């Protein structure tokens, strides 16, 4: 079969998968952002006294974030389809049978994907904060100065494209199993939704422990939305500490928020 006919055939084979890929990506976002929204914004949850910013986001912001997130899912779906297409030509190192590389490799490769994404996110994020790219690519995400769970995928289509490239990049470097991708995608949305939740859930001792303070907190990313500078990290603060981009007030702010006591709030309210 000639190249064009074969390409057309491959594309037609992918058509039935379009709604499935879209729905998986969309439901992943909607489910986790929805659960976080219910817990933090509807339900009287136990972390109320841990609110990072005093003000609340407006409902009109939630709608805008949701619509941009749907557009991001369209971009993710498109990238996945292109990857699937090129996979047919042997460009990506996906494998189906876990036995081919074993469970140990599956776990290690999942951790490696998250590690590479952490590094990739830090540098692409810093780049997006340069004047030219900020206006054209990253501003949409920063319109949410008070982030909410719905901010998780609220990106311009260009920014969504940059984030989605992590999947083809890792699949070009080493063999990736779909289960590793699923775990990675679930982990990233949970972390992403929590980082934008507007509440801190981590214990105070994490901020003083030399190792655990390298885990990114919700306060850390929330401060990024407030200051527009500093705290560019995703899962860890490793790169921020290494390259001197941790917010000067971060450790103090984290300590203040996590040292609040619920009783104090109740006392203040009853006075
Ligand atoms: Zn940013
Ligand atoms: Zn953000």
UniProtKB/TrEMBL annotation:
One GO cellular component term noted in the UniProt record for this chain: membrane
GO function terms (MF aspect): iron ion binding; oxidoreductase activity
Gene Ontology terms describing biological process: lipid biosynthetic process
Localization: Membrane
Domain Fatty acid hydroxylase: 111-245
Chief site of localization: membrane
Source species, domain of life: Bacteria
Designated name of the protein: Fatty acid hydroxylase
